[in-house]
Write a structure and sequence with these properties.
homodimer; two-stranded antiparallel ribbon; 3 helices; flat; DNA-binding; TF_MADSbox_sf (chains A, B); nucleus (chains A, B)
Chain lengths: 198, 198
DNA sequence: ACCCCTATGTATAAATG
DNA sequence: TCATTTATACATAGGGG
């Protein structure tokens, strides 16, 4: 759509790919907005640039929330966790690639084997995912407990301080002020009285 | 984009809204595909029609995962689909119970059907599980933030109290005490001096 | 990278079948 | 409701600053 027709396949030139990305991404999001408004429907768009940056649009809050939650969570955990998983998946990909070169020549036996491999990769992936999720939850629970403990401690500190300063107010400063004032006045009167007597 | 310019606001006429929805939805998804291919990025689009039907596009599996999660999340919050989903699982249980009574008499066709039912129940269960886990994590994160905020607040309170009491000691009570004490002593000395002079 | 411009390809509103 | 047509608005490729 422009000076020339462009075939829909990966743009090889990096900079024009980037330019096109920017333009079309904005276009897509604009269209999504229009669709949601014109037709009164919920629309969400998520784009991950190749550098991993996220661009998204959502016509409702909850979707944004969900997707953002997902993103922040996955981004946080992926870096640590994925290495092991990629090894397994990497192996699977190798198997798949070598098998897929001649997909028509795979016998039923081969396919059964392939099915088993994929199945076990799936199980491993899933179980690793579950592990990480459960760990994450356990970790968060611990943190929560710790924070709650800290909070309790701080509150105790505060109530301690308050009690101290109340004691000071009731038996310390206030009393001293009045008694001192009295004694000052009294002393002056005494002095005056003494002078008068003399 | 057509015979006329159309303002971007809800189309009131139901049938033309429906027509526009159909056209623009396809357009949006086409654009999303093009973007993902041309720029070699991951794109996902989700559209919920007002009648609750889902249309989606995703360039990758992982984003499909996001969408499934999102999907199940929304299902959790929307009563209709929730109800429908439990029915499905209930139905599955019924099917299983009646089928398992005579497991040997099941034909391949029956088994394929059963496999599909079990498979979809599995997907639903898994997606619901994922949804709950993600929600749980998000909830814990929020709680963590809240607790941290409270902690910060309490710490501020404490440091505020400490500073106050320091100020009091330096410029308040202490000073008054000494000046009062001095004036008392001074007055008494004056009085004494007066007495001595007289 | 970003904006502006313009020629051109696309998407689509409305009409029609 | 859906397909086709057509006129028009919009999106955008390529180019220059």
């Amino acid at each position: 759509m422009g000076r020339r027709k462009v075939a829909i396949k990966r743009i090889e030139d990096k900079s024009s790919r980037q330019v096109t990305f920017s333009k079309r991404r904005n276009g897509l999001i604009k269209k999504a907005k229009e669709l949601s408004v014109l037709c009164d429907v919920d629309v969400a768009v998520v784009v991950f640039s190749s550098s991993g940056k996220l661009y998204d649009f959502s016509s409702t809050n909850s979707l944004t929330g969900v997707l953002q939650r997902y993103n922040s969570h996955v981004e946080t955990e992926e870096k640590q966790s994925n290495y092991a998983r990629y090894m397994t998946i990497g192996e699977l990909v190798q198997t798949l690639e070598s098998d897929i070169e001649e997909p028509d020549q795979l016998s039923v036996t081969d396919l059964v084997h392939l099915e088993q491999q994929i199945g076990s990769a799936l199980l491993e992936t899933r179980s690793r995912k579950n592990c990480l999720l459960m760990e994450s939850i356990a970790h968060l629970h611990e943190k929560e407990k710790m924070l709650e403990e800290e909070k309790r401690h701080l509150e105790e500190q505060i109530s301690g301080i308050k009690k101290d300063s109340e004691e000071v107010n009731e038996m310390g400063v206030g009393v001293d002020f009045t008694s001192l004032a009295t004694s000052v006045v009294g002393t002056q009167q005494q002095a005056a009285a003494t002078l008068n007597l003399l």
